[in-house]
Automatic annotation (TrEMBL), chain A:
Residues 23-209 form the Electron transfer flavoprotein alpha/beta-subunit N-terminal domain. InterPro entries: ETF_a/b_N, ETF_b, ETF_beta_N, Rossmann-like_a/b/a_fold. This is Electron transfer flavoprotein subunit beta. Keywords: Electron transport, Transport. The keyword Electron transport applies. It comes from Pedobacter petrophilus.
Automatic annotation (TrEMBL), chain B:
This is Electron transfer flavoprotein subunit alpha/FixB family protein. PANTHER family: ELECTRON TRANSFER FLAVOPROTEIN ALPHA, ELECTRON TRANSFER FLAVOPROTEIN SUBUNIT ALPHA, MITOCHONDRIAL. Its cofactor is FAD. The keyword Transport applies. Gene3D superfamilies: HUPs, TPP-binding domain. GO terms for biological process: fatty acid beta-oxidation using acyl-CoA dehydrogenase. It comes from Pedobacter petrophilus.
Amino acid sequence: MKILVCISNVPDTTTKITFTNDNTEFNTAGVQYIVNPYDEIALSRAIELTEGGKGTITVINVGEAGNDPTVRKALAIGADEAVRVNAAPRDAYFVAKQIAEYARDKDYAMILTGRESIDYNGNQVAAMVGEFLDIPSISIIKKLDFDGTSATIEREIEGGKEVVTVSGKFVASCAEGVAEPKIPNMRGIMSARTKPLTVIEAVAIDAVTKVAKYETPAPRGAVKLVPADQTESLIGLLHSEAKVI
Amino acid sequence: MSVLVYVEQAEGKFKKSVFEAVSYAKAIADQQSTNLSAISIGDVAESELKELGKYGASKVLNVSADQLKTFVNQAYASVIAAAASKESADIVVLSNSFSGKGLAPRIAVKLEAGLADGAVELPSTDGKFSVKKTAFSGKAFAITELTSANKVIALNPNAFGVKENATDASIENFAADIKQSDLGTVIKDIVRATDKVSLPDAELVVSAGRGLKGPENWGMIEELAGLLGAATACSKPVSDADWRPHSEHVGQTGIAISPNLYIAIGISGAIQHLAGVSSSKVIVVINKDPEAPFFKVADYGIVGDAFEVVPKLIEALKAHKG
């Protein structure tokens, strides 16, 4: 069984987010990049499903050469090979099209992504890849089992979960719970250097969105402290001042 | 040219987030000087469909095919795209719910449309069509221009509010073609905790962290939430330790929420946690450490032990409710 895992290169979760050029560009100065944490969950489940010679894993990233350390990190975690589509990721539509065209004539049993990238928070790529390939997609999954022919998947819904089965090829976006993220060991890190990383060119497609500007949330006013021995007055403040209860 | 809104039903009923999406779509239709149609898929009574008129939908397409009684992502996307073309809709709006997140990208590809998901405001239409959406997990917003002719917008719950706009909605049955290849997923089971408020679209949220010391101490959190009619949530260390389910984890790697009121109890306020809750309208922090970073982004704070403060709050709330 072959699994394709889509990897996004994102700022570390502790990054203070700032912008440059009149707030039109993300300020990359001093930013550490990581494998998108949800993509790590997807990759970790792929590793569990292929352990013991049951299959191989390809990771795919759409990005320029600067992403290679992140791609190597995915190889160190345990992917067998990597593909980088050599193009700046213009939007989710563009990225999904690249992934779909790469996967189209290959026999991946499943294509996994994280539930969203932590930069643009889209959760778009998985379902778009599914649509481009005309195969099912299941978004924001919490559990993934595969018996060799069909998958049983738990998907999050408001206030509960839905259990879904799917036979044949599919795409799924993974959330917490699918697997514990695996940490690369020394052997993984060493072997990642020699695992194949193939660079391919992008297919032509226009982006359909463009970020015109970024804004940061308006700062809040100073906190109003309620003394602990007057706790009950908080209820009054929330009722008559903040008007939220 | 018109606007189409997908109205997601759960067990034959529409939730508040659906009426909010309709209100939002109606405001866009007004911006564009056009009409708003809605599309409903599944078993929904006519009286419930009529409700959509209250928020500005002048027509409701109703799809009640047997194969589509429960959610099938691929087929629902096909039906919604077919409805968009039937209504000559160039803008499709839906709620950025769990199902909406699975549908919107597929609809966007079908319509070759730019997608703004996590929208928090009405589009600005001064020559360009731009939508403000959340980015960097709540640490920023991206003003995203949709450059395609067709557009799809997924609205974040609680971002716009429900606005009444009484219209008489005509109900029309819509017999969409259903491709067998669109029915690749089969639902085996649906589990819903019906006695609890669903977190992603909750207006009030009571959240607790490691300061609670153990899962056995959540009784008072649940009681406070119950009195408020609030959903319960937790921090990452709490769900990592399995004190609470992952579905309650809010923050950068959990879910992002924007309730009217977020009460954080015994949560220090790591940057990853703040990312997921910073768009809450009012934040209350209860923590015994006056230096907890959460106080810097709070509107109201109490420096005190959760085990003393929360029971007092519960008493005060009972008194308030009389």
